[in-house]
Design brief:
The complex is a heterodimer of chains A (about 100) and B (about 200). Chain A is mainly α and about 100 residues long. Chain A is built from 3 helices and no strands. Classes of the chains: A mainly alpha (about 100), B mainly alpha (about 200). At the A-B interface, α1, α2 and α3 of A face α1, α3 and α7 of B.
């Protein structure tokens, strides 16, 4: 991988299938956690699993792992803006 | 068209990603509303959430993840100049989108049959938190369903172009961008699933 370059990178069928299996396993895990564990812990657990699944989709299915610096920084920027929105909203809602 | 065709695949992909970021923020707004109202009506959200059909939610999650795999494989296929394979994989993705929407139809029909829809007599007399939950549910999932429909349409147009040979190993940014859009639809569902079907 060469940073900043946009040359094409081919992700093999095998690697994509492995990611798919990982996503299926995480789906099974999240359903199991929700059925067997009640309390505040499983909210954070479910969201952590969802973030992990989202990361796999973005990195491999959407090729972000193989993209250059520009797209990676833009993704980081978008997620940072999102984190600020979420943080400020709950800062307001929870401590009103 | 006059002159040599201008082609800028990196620019096209950059534009697609910028658009996807706005989509991300659009759905995040709905998730934020969900979080704020969950904080205000925890018991009503809990009661309403337990009425959701976990089976439909899980099945549709598996369908979308699989469709995302097929779309990603279609990109690999076109890069390797395996056109027939790319068309088959795109067909599989489109089939998944149709099955997803059909499941959604069955799920909504069952819910509407139980008197659960915005403004229904049952929700009007019920606690306010419950009607807020279902309004957000129909809005978020409905908007997501619209994206499934749009994504499926785009992928169909792309498959036709691959068939005609206008999309090939040397020019496939349209397929790549449509696949990116489809992965975003999958990504949004990955968060809808725990929020509406699991954590309550």
């Amino acid at each position: 991988m060469t940073g900043g370059n946009t040359e094409q990178h081919i992700v093999s069928y095998g690697k994509l299938t492995t990611v798919w299996l990982g996503l299926l396993a995480l789906t099974a895990l999240t359903v199991w956690v929700a059925r067997h564990n009640v309390g505040i812990g499983h909210v954070w657990g479910s969201l952590a699993i969802a973030v992990t699944k989202g990361g796999l989709v973005i990195a491999f299915f959407m090729h972000m792992k193989y993209e250059g610096r520009l797209l990676r920084w833009l993704l980081f920027f978008a997620l940072a803006v999102l984190a600020i929105f979420i943080g400020l909203t709950f800062f307001d809602v929870l401590y009103r | 068209m006059n002159g040599p065709l201008h082609k800028d695949d990196a620019g096209a992909k950059l534009g697609m990603w910028l658009f996807l970021f706005t989509e991300l923020l659009l759905f995040s707004g709905l998730f934020l509303l969900y979080g704020a109202y969950l904080n205000r009506y925890p018991h009503e959200f809990g009661a309403a959430g337990r009425e959701m059909h976990l089976g439909f939610g899980t099945l549709n999650t598996v369908i979308l993840i699989t469709s995302s795999l097929l779309a990603a494989m279609a990109v690999t296929a076109i890069q390797r100049d395996e056109r027939r394979k790319a068309i088959g994989l795109l067909g599989g993705t489109i089939l998944c989108s149709a099955v997803f929407l059909f499941n959604k139809y069955l799920e909504w029909r069952a819910e509407i049959g139980n008197g659960i829809f915005p403004g229904s007599p049952r929700l009007v007399v019920g606690p306010p938190g419950e009607s807020v939950f279902y309004s957000l549910y129909y809005l978020t999932v409905g908007l997501h369903g619209l994206h499934v429909l749009i994504g499926g349409t785009f992928l169909t147009l792309v498959a036709v172009r691959v068939q005609r040979g206008t999309i090939h190993a040397g020019n496939y940014v349209l397929l790549e961008n449509s696949a990116l859009y489809w992965h975003l639809v999958d990504l949004i569902w990955i968060f809808i699933f725990p929020l509406y079907y699991l954590i309550l």
